[in-house]
């Protein structure tokens, strides 16, 4: 059974720091991996999607990497800002047909000014 | 609309009441998913539709939960005889037919059962 783990559960950093969020999964046979952002009381906003054939994706100050063989993904946030404060969720799509995502519990990030 | 919409955004129900939660997916998206998110947890899969066909309902926690998508667009998640443990945020997501099948989520419905 696929399990997704995110470490750390919570992280506090001062503004301007670069940081890395970690995601691990137990079964390397995945179709793709998505990183989401969730603000309090809101839905999920997709940040980056990495297909199984890709190694990384970049969007602005965000860079996500994928190492299928070791069952790991990282989300790198450069020059963090207070507006980055949110919960970041990692999810894997385990099936070719693109079915239900399996989520980690998230990392809650707080960036202080 | 440009994104996935859900209604109501908030619902308070007394234990034993029936509730119906609505999801309007992105126009043209064939796949629709329902997830349940408990406080402090990641979303957990409930059920999946491809057009009007419910292809997977393995995540529905009990027979009190029922979902439908009769015309392949709008979907309704119904919970009968609500219990306190049903209190959660219910998220709907949709994805298109081709490509990497990125899922786009709605804002969710927060259900509180008192």
Radius of gyration of chain B: 13 Å
Order of helices and strands of chain A: EEEEEEEEEEE
Query: What class do helices, strands and sheet pairing of chain B give?
Result: mainly beta
* Oligomerization status of the protein chains: heterodimer
Number of helices of chain A: 0
Structural overview:
The complex is a heterodimer of chains A (113) and B (114). By secondary structure, chain A is mainly β. Chain A is 0% helix and 56% strand. Chain A contains no helices and 11 strands. The mean pLDDT of chain A is 93. Chain B starts with a strand and ends with a strand. Chain B has 114 residues and is mostly beta strands. In chain B, the strands form 2 sheets. In chain B, strands 2, 4, 5, 6, 9, 10 and 11 form a 7-stranded mixed sheet that branches. Chain B has a 4-stranded antiparallel sheet with strand order 1-3-8-7, with no helix packed on it. Helices cover 0% and strands 48% of the residues of chain B. Chain B contains no helices and 11 strands. The mean pLDDT of chain B is 94. The chains are: A mainly beta (113), B mainly beta (114). At the A-B interface, strand 4, strand 5, strand 9 and strand 10 of A face strand 4, strand 5, strand 9 and strand 10 of B.
